[in-house]
Write a structure and sequence with these properties.
The protein is mostly helical. The chain has three domains: 1-60, no CATH class; 75-208, no CATH class; 257-333, Orthogonal Bundle (Helix Hairpins). It has helices spanning 5-15, 20-24, 28-41, 43-47, 52-59, 62-67, 80-100, 107-124, 133-143, 154-167, 183-207, 209-226, 231-252, 256-269, 274-282, 291-305, 315-332, and strands at 129-130, 170-171. The protein has a two-stranded antiparallel ribbon. Helix 7 packs across helix 11 and helix 8 (107-124) runs antiparallel to helix 9 (133-143). The N and C termini lie far apart (59 Å).
Length: 339
């Protein structure tokens, strides 16, 4: 089926960073690259304003006519843009691997170079070109031990892989008429590839949700503290931060999601009540204390002030105070606090 430039531009405008126009044109490698990088980090998506007509011509097999001008052994010309893209995406894939997969055995020897090599090969396979995957991965595996354990290792590994991919670049074999796969299987393969990329990263983010929230809490709190001398501006910023919660309440009318959002925003804004602040002082805790910190402090203080072990006259009163403070702080960390 002949592809239309107008349709390609419409899909570029509607979902270009997700690669919709590349799926339409049968450029699945390019579409996957755009899905994983949101349109080449935005820069590639903008550049395609002038590139779409050429992509449509390739999809309509005009590029096959151009290729006949060259011998079968000819290689595509080196593209500085493609080479830079290989290096950047290789580093990007390596960084994602460092975030989500660094706990795996032999990470720096096997996992990291394979991830970097996959990113480099993905860029080298965009359009009518491709490269030798085996030689690209070999370059990664050889380079990786030299920079073992370094957080900067994705850079040299990506450079080595990009050089290997550039040296072994070639044209893709021409497709026979009618050999294009149906849309369903293509989308299935793209979905599996996207899931393989995003699942480890998503697991890492959700696994470290508590640490992430407290980090955001510190950032938001520091931002609001800057405007202590302008209460009205601080109030405006706080209102903006609470806007997603208010919108969600208006749409859902409350329930579990309201409680979850309220819990999340309360952590972000550090809206401790006076009673909770007193409880933190009783247990000698800081505002960012986790549930494990609360339990540990409570056990230590309860053991010290328990009337059966402490003969002091104030022991019983202090023990009750510790018990109440513990219940206040534990209630704050429970999902059903707002019921």
């Amino acid at each position: 089926m002949v592809k239309s430039v107008i349709v390609a531009y419409a899909l570029w405008a509607a979902g270009g960073p997700l690669g919709l126009h590349h799926i339409y044109l049968g450029r699945d490698s390019h579409a996957l690259l755009w899905m994983l990088t949101l349109g080449g980090f935005g820069l590639g998506w903008v550049r395609e304003v002038i590139r779409i007509p050429a992509y449509v011509s390739e999809a309509n097999q005009d590029a096959q006519k151009e290729r006949k001008r060259y011998p079968n052994t000819a290689s595509p010309s080196i593209s500085p843009v493609r080479f830079a893209g290989q290096v950047c995406v290789g580093i990007y894939f390596g960084t994602v691997a460092l975030i989500g997969l660094n706990s795996l055995s032999f990470f720096y020897l096997i996992v990291l170079p394979l991830c970097v090599g996959a990113g480099v090969h993905l860029v080298s396979s965009v359009g009518q070109q491709t490269s030798d995957l085996q030689k690209t991965l070999t370059a990664c595996l050889i380079t990786s031990p030299v920079f073992y354990g370094s957080t900067l290792s994705p850079l040299p590994i990506s450079l080595a892989a990009s050089i290997a991919a550039a040296q072994h670049r070639r044209f893709k074999p021409p497709q026979r008429p009618g050999s294009t796969q149906e849309l369903g299987p293509r989308l299935y393969k793209l979905g599996l590839a996207w899931l393989a990329f995003s699942a480890p990263l998503g697991y890492c983010i959700f696994h470290n949700t508590t640490a992430t929230l407290y980090y955001l809490s510190d950032c938001v709190s520091a931002l609001l503290d800057i405007f202590w001398f302008l209460p009205w501006l601080r109030g405006v910023l706080e209102y903006i931060l609470l806007m997603p919660y208010r919108i969600l309440c208006a749409l859902t009318g409350g329930g579990y999601y309201e409680e979850t959002w309220k819990r999340l925003l309360e952590i972000l804004l550090k809206e401790y009540t006076e009673r909770e602040k007193e409880a933190l002082q009783v247990l000698s805790l800081k505002s960012e204390a986790s549930l494990e910190d609360i339990n540990r402090s409570y056990r230590e203080l309860a053991k010290t002030w328990h009337p059966d072990h402490n003969p002091s006259k104030d022991a019983e009163a202090m023990f009750v105070k510790i018990q109440e403070a513990y219940e206040v702080l534990v209630r704050r960390h429970r999902p059903d606090r707002f019921k």
